[in-house]
Write a structure and sequence with these properties.
168 residues; mainly alpha; 2 domains; 7 helices; Wnt-protein binding; wnt signaling pathway; acyltransferase; transmembrane; signal
Length: 168
C-alpha cells in the first residue's frame, strides 16, 4: 500500500509542478516505478494465494540503488527475466553471439509489451547500454583484478581485490 500511496499521492505532493523540468521528470519516473512496485507486490500476493510458488517479482532497493544497469533489468521483473534468459537469450546466444542475442531478447521483450515505438526504443537502447556496461566491467575487472563486474562475484572468486558490496 505504501507504493500505491507513493505513486498516486505523495510523489505529486512532494515535487510540485512549479519546480524545474528535471525534478518533474524525476517525480514522474519515481511515480511510475512506485506504481510498478505496487503491481509487482500485488501480483506476487495473488500468485501465492492461488498456490503458485513465486517468492519475489521485483526488488525495489536493487532498482533504486543499483550496482549496475544489469541489476535494474534483472530485478525489475524477476520471473520474466528468468523466462527471457532461459528461453530466448540462451537459445539465441548459440546462433547469434552475445551482442545480437541481447538485442534479440530486448526486441522480444518489446514485442511482449505491445508494438509501441517509444517503449521499443527504450528497451533496445537499454539492451545496448547493458551490453556496453557489461563489456566495460569485464575489461576493468581483468585489468585491475577487482570485483567490479555487473553482478557481484561469488565469495570465492579469483580477484585479488574483493567487493564489500551486497550479495544477491
Amino acid at each position: 500500500m505504501i507504493f500505491l500511496l507513493l505513486s498516486t499521492c505523495f510523489a505529486l505532493w512532494m515535487v510540485p509542478d512549479s519546480i524545474n523540468k528535471w525534478a518533474q521528470a524525476f517525480r514522474d519516473a519515481f511515480s511510475f516505478r512506485s506504481s510498478h512496485y505496487f503491481v509487482s507486490y500485488l501480483s506476487m500476493t495473488s500468485a501465492q494465494l492461488s498456490g503458485l510458488d513465486i517468492r519475489e517479482v521485483a526488488r525495489p532497493a536493487y532498482i533504486e540503488i543499483p550496482r549496475s544497469l544489469v541489476e535494474v533489468v534483472v530485478y525489475w521483473n524477476m520471473p520474466m527475466h528468468y523466462w527471457l534468459k532461459t528461453y530466448i537469450f540462451k537459445t539465441a546466444r548459440n546462433w547469434l553471439g552475445i551482442f545480437w542475442a541481447i538485442l534479440f531478447t530486448y526486441s522480444m521483450s518489446s514485442l511482449f509489451h505491445g508494438i509501441n515505438f517509444q517503449l521499443a526504443a527504450v528497451l533496445l537502447s537499454l539492451g545496448f547500454y547493458t551490453y556496453v556496461e557489461h563489456s566495460l566491467r569485464v575489461k576493468l575487472a581483468s585489468v585491475f583484478d577487482a570485483c567490479v563486474l555487473a553482478r557481484p562475484c561469488p565469495e570465492k572468486c579469483h580477484h585479488q581485490y574483493k567487493s564489500k558490496y551486497r550479495k544477491s
